[in-house]
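User: Okay, second chain of the day. Same drill as before: sequence in, structure tokens out.
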Amino acid sequence: MTMTTGGVGEGPIRTALVTGGTGGMGRVIAAKLAADGFDVAVAYTGDVDLADATVGEIKDQGRRGAAFAADIADEEAVSDLFDAVDDRFGHLDVVIHTAGINRPAALTDLDLAEFDAIHRVNVRGTFVVDQQAARRVRDGGSIVNVSSQVVRLAPPALSAYASSKSAVDTLTRILAKELRGRDVTVNAVAPGPTATAAFLSSTPREEQEQLAAVPPLGRLGRPEDIAGVVSFLVGPAGRWINGQVVYANGGFV
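Assistant: Same drill. Structure tokens below.
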């Protein structure tokens, strides 16, 4: 496992782990949590320069940060990840699981290898991360999974992705019940179309405009919108929200 670190916080600080923390949504969530006063660890795959930049953003908020490369669907790698977070920060209070993949295709055309890849990351990855989170998060903490509004909309060409996120919703609700007595909240956030770099680069301009016109608010979501919901759920004002899937989509129906 590789790690980059930076920044030093003062006083009694809560610690958060964000998987997919260098992605368009995860990176903004990590920065928001740092602004809220958390020390933040991010798990990532791929671009170490982007991981360094994310840690720099956390440091800019005056908090400690660390980035760890890990395959979030590999149980040994995830166990090592949580060990590394414990070693670096001493405790863990919040886990935000944003890591996921999508390979759009009609059900009749999707290669089963692609189906397996989607479910490995989105379902197995959520199970493995949540399992470790449930074991490691301190009492009074929070776990937030990132789902998707496609579970409710069931659009064409997203059968594998939507079914994987349906599993995320179910795992979220069950884990919330299984952590009875720990004062640990477990929720999912289900974004609508959100203007991350990956979304904008993979979605034709015309389709972006069509999607932006659907919500009453008349625009695509922004990563900051989702980060604000996550911040609420893991903050003191969100303690009575538990076992829920929160649709953060600007009224997209």
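DSSP finds nine helices and eight strands in the chain.

User: Thanks, on to the next one.
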